[in-house]
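Lecture 7 notes: from sequence to structure.
We start with the chain below.
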Amino acid sequence: MDKKKQVKRIFDSIAYRYDFLNHFLSVGIDIYWRKKSLKLSEINRHSVLLDVACGTGDFAIEARKLGVKNITGADLSYNMLKFFNAKSEWSRGNIIQCVAENLPFNSGTFTHITVAFGVRNFFDIAEAFKNFNTVLKDGGKAIVLEFQLPKNIIIRKGYLFYFNKVLPAIGKLISKDKEAYTYLPESVNQFDSNVNLVKLFKEAGFDKVSVKSLTFGIAQITIAEK
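Predicted structure tokens for the same chain:
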């Protein structure tokens, strides 16, 4: 199965349990990470936001709380978008089923793009970032929130044990989808080992790229400015 089909199948399958598992498995800290990402992005009520790999809409909903009115959500999974609509009235008519590698928007449409835990699911990150650069206005920012392997050896060992043993067992028990929660740690390990976000953003035409580690280095925020 190619990656696009695999990702769509997995997230369509676990959509009904996605929010619960996200918050439960991260002990709610993913909520803080999203808030921190938006604060660092300097997003405001005048911003025009595209939330890519939006899932059930947590990043977009958080931005809405900060006063952002012009928000578009995009995701490959129809079921994820359906649950996004169920969580908010304003999302209706403002979400679209598509992939990051082929964004159906005009050049210079958005001031901000956000992605939470979605870049590792892209099937061509370089192409996706080129699309980001195209649909962003000059001075626009792309904000990526993603897991990373901690540098501290002790924390890394605990992190890997949790990700490779505990998370798949709980995920399988609650979601009934074994592949979904073995795919997650596998994708994080592969992503951390093989992907240099700063390099990819610069190759896609972004001028300034900054990185901030979060919570003992288990997650990172990458902000790229056009």
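Points to note: Residues 3-225 form a domain with the Rossmann fold fold (CATH 3.40.50.150). The mean pLDDT is 91.
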